[in-house]
Amino acid sequence: MMSDVTFIQVGDLANGFEHASHLVSRSDELAGRTFKLYFKEKQPMRLALLPGELLHFNSYEYLSYRCTSIRESIYFIDFLDPDNPRGTITIILDVSLNLVTLIYGQLPTADQVSVSAFSRIKQNVSLTDVDVCILFGTAKILTTDDQLHHFTDELIGYRNQYIYSSTEKYEHIYLNENFYAWHCIEGVEKGLADVDRCHYIKISEKLYLFIWREKIVPTLGVILIDMKLLRTDGKILGYQEEDFKALTNFQVGSYAKILHSIV
């Protein structure tokens, strides 16, 4: 008889991923550059990237950040939200086309997480309180003719395997426009699986931004999936421990394999 598998905190997940992980190397190619980001019905935002992995964002200065590039001229920039102790900001910046997607991510409070799934169903609200706000814009003055990053259904129907390290292996099944299934084949979550809320965004040809929001242990994933290079790069955000006091916001990267597709 198999023993029950149990969900773990994101801090424990980060510990499992840290050994011999297949991370994309950090990039300093944008150091010294300043961008003005434009979004519909928003004030322009200022982003200045400094040497030494520090940046200025709007009125905030000297924030620590991480920048990587999975494909030429496209950058994944990630840092803690200075306005929100439970949040992060992720910016996908295409400097060749002057296109940008910005994601505000926010974890729920302990009180929010304590509400049962049945109560949520009765209230007709989402099963997860992990929240995201997704903005599409440009790194130049926005016009009505701009072809922005956008939501897509191009990943739906794929079943992919992701090898994050010598010990961590997962599979995803992209079910429909709102949900995907994940399953840990090997690693600290071996045997665990679930279906969670997700969002798919097309960044470039065969390059997708995949965002998921877990409902059991509050977790936010923001990942670039390159279906041409079969490579991923991104981050996972959650609480370090079950006391909800400290965040863990760690980089992940993997080699991908397409197992099946109904497309």
Automatic annotation (TrEMBL):
It holds the Pfam family MoaF_C. InterPro entries: Calycin, MoaF_C, MoaF_N. Gene3D superfamilies: 2.40.128.20. Residues 150-260 form the MoaF C-terminal domain. Residues 6-108 form the Molybdenum cofactor biosynthesis protein F N-terminal domain. It comes from the Bacteria. This is MoaF C-terminal domain-containing protein. It comes from Thorsellia kenyensis.
